[in-house]
User: Fold this.
Amino acid sequence: MTKRHVAIIAGYGSLPLIGAKYVKEKGDELLIIALKESCTLNEELKQIADYYYEFSVGLAGKMLKTLKKHKITHALLSGKVEIKLLHSTRFDLKALLILAKITFKSTDSINFAIINELKKINIDMLSQKEVYASIIPKSMQFTDKSYCEAGLKEIVKEGFLFAKHIGALDLGQSIVISRQGILAVESAEGTDITFARGSSLAKGEALCIKTGKAYQDERFDLPTVGLDTLKNIAENGGLGLIMESGETIVVDMDKCVEYAKEKGLIFSAVSKDEL
Assistant:
């Protein structure tokens, strides 16, 4: 098999390192571009990479030249990059030209613009579902506390519908819901803040929902949760988390399950067909 030359553009969290280990296990050459405003595992990534660079989010020209120089064939967008950086980052000319073509600057539109630029220099995107398959759970109840036994199945079903709707609008992939209605909808603030805010509005009654988009592109922005997600829910009085099975990345699953059990949270992966 021909060795691929893979670049990971690394944002916040541990996903870039998990992706880097996957690439190396496949025997491919690995280049890391760590985004200065976002990346948090710089030293770990530097140790595993064949080539390592740190660039500001706004230096699109330098990034593209670096990818061409190393004859990169495949790329992976990995880790969180907050959209609010659009308002605080200095952009080079190439980045400004890319952004100028985007009428409405949302997560999807920016990611598609990046993918189109990479396609121009013959770089294909890796599927996040391929890279993170081992940490995308199938349908399962992870704690003894069930949303069905709590009489919340209809609430979860409604929550999935609402979450899919906001995903289609490219607002986010998360909502907080109770028997009284929607408490919070994700936007630019991100999942954790949305879950904390919504849970605090109806302590002991709020259920957090995380789904993929109706037409989820596997190359970027797969819904992701982790220990911090559950802590935000528990510390603000939420009932728990229901995520879409087969679509949601779970970072540090063992720690998540242990914490959810300790705090008495509902924690389940469900497909929409089960509801």
Remarks:
- DSSP finds ten helices and 13 strands in the chain.
- The first helix runs from residue 15 to 25.
